[in-house]
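Example S7 (structure tokens).
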């Protein structure tokens, strides 16, 4: 038995060696280690802190190095200039790439998986749905979601698991961004099915009865049917309706987009919108808790806004109020940098590419390392310190890319920031929170978040403090 294993390992080494040496690449490939045959450096990447994995290699090999992750040879890049080449100036040579199981679950016609005309047509529609002028009108609906969820925290007799609660909040916001502020009855069923689909996102892609993947695929099929029915209902009523769905249906009137393309993109946007925002909000609460002086300054800013609302007939928050939350905005910017929940993204070379004196062979994955760039002391002095004031001056070009860069950059960045600001306004003016347990460890699910999803205890603030000028 052990002889067979030795022979298999030897053959895999041989294949990997041949692959690396073919077409005379060897001398021109970037430096780096391909690790063990087949598994490469996957185990190291997923067991070490991302900071350790990438910084060891950047120190050893420089800002561009090769590796082997999840069965694929890849090149990792950590300079802003190189990331810009891959994501912006030579983006046509590097196509987006995702595991086939993700594509099946979200739907192959979602914009993430495409380039060229189809991608730009969809991107314009999605961007118009989440542009500041489009989301301005949603402030009230988002605020209502916050006001509905926060009082439940206050009465909790057990710890509040921040990540879990933030996921619920960001999911509700994603639903109104997909279907509008007055979603139809049908969206309740869509919500339940989406939650079933979500359980399979990070499962092994084993498609037979009983597996999480199989259950998720079944939910995905039912979701298609429900979405088709809702599309049909809106079509029959003659009203395109609100949210991204409304915008896509208007386009459909011009026969430029099919029902399945609409369904895949609605699911895609819900997928992209909520775990990301929920993870970042969880980090904001952790950083504010750990940095009392920053929290105090945020409270001062938010109390000022609250006093203004009270003096103006106790009116609700507006978009313009959120534009005056300058310090809170910097806290969000610094959280996006410091936590860098998307440590990197994936592209694939569509041909052999000459790249900064090296060759990246066709089919190799290319990973721009967002986290490494955000944690470089060349661009962010003392990168390990949480310091929102660093954003009082704009960062150097291409050094701050929490929402990506180029054609595939995030169309939801303004919505994500808006929902965080609204949430923080109500949380800081009404409550205080205490993190339970002193552990500073991190868990991945799939994004890095404080261990245990940040259990907290929430305490109401005395109202006297809000009306008092600090
Ligand atoms: C703080 C929260 C968020 C973060 C950190 C984030 C980050 C990102 C990043 C880095 C990308 C680019 C990925 C790449 O180039 O491979 C991206 C793409 C995308 N994001 Fe976000 N995102 C967030 C919230 C949202 C929200 C709220 C929405 C929707 C309302 C959204 C929708 C999308 C979509 C549709 C794409 C794909 C764009 C394309 O392929 O052209 N994201 N996001």
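Recovered sequence:
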């Amino acid at each position: 038995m052990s002889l067979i294993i030795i022979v298999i390992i030897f053959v895999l080494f041989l294949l990997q060696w041949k692959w690396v040496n073919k077409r005379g690449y060897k001398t021109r490939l970037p430096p780096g280690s391909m690790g063990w045959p087949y598994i490469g450096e996957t185990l190291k990447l997923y067991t070490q802190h991302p900071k350790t994995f990438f910084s060891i290699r950047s120190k050893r090999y420089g800002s561009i190095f090769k590796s082997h992750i999840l069965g694929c040879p890849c090149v990792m890049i950590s300079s802003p200039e190189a990331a810009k080449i891959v994501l912006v100036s030579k983006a046509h040579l590097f196509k987006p790439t995702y595991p086939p199981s993700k594509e099946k679950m979200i739907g192959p016609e979602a914009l993430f998986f495409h380039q060229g005309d189809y991608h730009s047509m969809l991107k314009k529609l999605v961007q118009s749905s989440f542009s500041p002028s489009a989301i301005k009108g949603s402030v009230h609906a988002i605020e209502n979601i916050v006001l509905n969820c926060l009082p439940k925290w206050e009465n909790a007799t057990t710890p509040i698991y921040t990540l879990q609660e933030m996921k619920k909040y960001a999911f509700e916001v994603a639903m109104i961004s997909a279907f509008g502020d007055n979603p139809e009855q049908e969206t309740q069923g869509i919500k339940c099915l989406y939650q079933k689909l979500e359980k399979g996102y990070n499962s092994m892609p084993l498609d037979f009865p009983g597996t999480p993947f199989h259950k998720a695929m079944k939910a995905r099929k039912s979701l298609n049917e429900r979405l088709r029915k809702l599309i049909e209902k809106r079509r029959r009523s003659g009203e395109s309706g609100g949210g991204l769905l409304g915008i896509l249906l208007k386009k459909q009137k011009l026969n430029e987009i099919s029902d399945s393309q609409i369904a895949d993109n609605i699911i895609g946007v819900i997928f992209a919108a909520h775990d990301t925002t929920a993870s970042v909000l969880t980090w904001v609460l952790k950083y504010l808790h750990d940095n009392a002086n920053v929290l105090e300054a945020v409270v001062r800013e938010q109390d000022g806004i609250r006093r203004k609302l009270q003096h103006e007939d106790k009116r609700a928050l507006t978009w313009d109020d959120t534009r005056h939350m300058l310090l809170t905005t910097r806290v969000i910017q610094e959280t996006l940098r410091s936590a860098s929940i998307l440590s990197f993204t994936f592209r694939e070379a569509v041909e052999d590419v000459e790249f900064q004196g090296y060759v990246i062979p066709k089919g190799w994955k290319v990973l721009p390392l967002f986290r490494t760039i955000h944690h470089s002391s060349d661009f962010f002095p003392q990168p390990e310190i949480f310091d929102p004031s660093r954003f009082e001056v704009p960062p150097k070009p291409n050094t701050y890319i929490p929402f990506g860069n180029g054609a595939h950059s995030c169309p939801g960045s303004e919505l994500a920031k808006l929902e965080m600001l609204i949430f923080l306004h109500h949380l800081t003016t009404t409550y205080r929170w205490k993190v339970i347990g002193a552990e500073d460890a991190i868990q991945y699910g799939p994004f890095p978040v404080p261990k245990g999803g940040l259990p907290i205890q929430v305490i109401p603030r005395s109202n006297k403090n809000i009306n008092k000028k600090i």
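Notes on this example. The domain at 71-467 is CATH 1.10.630.10 (Cytochrome p450).
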